[in-house]
Amino acid sequence: MEDLLLNSENLLNRVSLTFRRYLYFQINWNNRLIGIKGSRGTGKTTMLLQWLKEVDIPTRQKAYFSLDDIFFAGNSLVETAKLFYQQGGKILVLDEVHKYPTWAQEIKNLYDRFHDLQVVFTGSSIIDISKQEGDLSRRALMYELKGLSYREFLDFQYGIKFPKLSLEEILTSEGIVRKKFPQEFKPLANFQEYLRFGYYPYQAEDRLGYFQRLRQQTRLIVEYDMAELKGFDIRHAKKMMQLLFVVAQQVPFKPNINSLAEKTGIHRNSINNYLYFLQEARLLTLLYPAGSSVAVLQKPEKIFLENTNLLFALSKETPSTGTVREIFFSNQVGSMHNTSYPKSGDFLVDGKFTFEIGGKNKDMSQLSNVENAWVVKDEIEYPVGKSLPLWLFGFLY
């Protein structure tokens, strides 16, 4: 265990506190058992190391263990944590818990046995603790970390800091929105960069190899992480990749089940299940008709890639501007609010706000008889009446 503690100390010494994710300020860090899930590359590990570094207790009383470390291939998590606790440990951060087969039961055991040991764990976005053994759902306070918002990207990449905006603030008054930003701020100056490269924090490390790394990450999610999903047969991973790439060339679109089955070799009765699995892995977003119940076997009205960076990485050709706009809106708004497909317009948010997405010349003609409706336009800087700028929805978190 000494090597684990030494590695933990080294990581804490190296982690930067310059930029912190939105979720850092939303978590109730006083809870005794906290779980944070999220897709690969969104920054879960960095966020936890930052928090652990700032906790004002001696270094040997706090530790970070990654459960994909080879140490845990031959050593019990419970016994290792017990030894840490007996040596005065108070806070234990466990990363990549889904890589350890009996993680749920053993974390539950730690919670029940050591009442003054705080445990914080992270896992893939696909983990569902309500279906895990040990009934962690009653014990753990769960959160999910999304990729960078446009607001966070401006801070992370350029040090441009702004507070987040609520949906109500965006919709209420154009004057209120304008007052939130200095006159010299050019909101569109870095927007196209964000759409291509801004969602995952690791883009700062290697911009030239970003798309290749993103494709590799996608394959790892499908071939390894999704093995944790109940009902998913890992032997179908190749077909899942085929389905994902087929969708990437066409999104957003109304899915034709027979056509998807023919192009991927997946039986038509299994397509909706596969789409659902890809959504659980945060690779796709499925938009269902307004007023309908979301069920695994239900056909979605539209399919989107989860974020615009994935779209640029997986598309064979430059994606259409309209597709990019809709995916950005779906991703940023859907991270904080419920979205569905309305009878008129492109998105219904929280069951009461309707939005049509388009370019700067888009008008309200398609929404003329719809209450609480707005046109969201690309290439405009600030709200004008019922016209809202697309970039502004990147400030919701």
TrEMBL record:
Residues 30-147 form the AAA+ ATPase domain. InterPro entries: AAA+_ATPase (IPR003593), AAA_14 (IPR041682), P-loop_NTPase (IPR027417). SUPFAM superfamilies: P-loop containing nucleoside triphosphate hydrolases. Gene3D superfamilies: P-loop containing nucleotide triphosphate hydrolases. Pfam families: AAA_14. This is AAA+ ATPase domain-containing protein. It comes from Aquiflexum balticum DSM 16537. The lineage of its organism: Bacteria, Pseudomonadati, Bacteroidota, Cytophagia, Cytophagales.
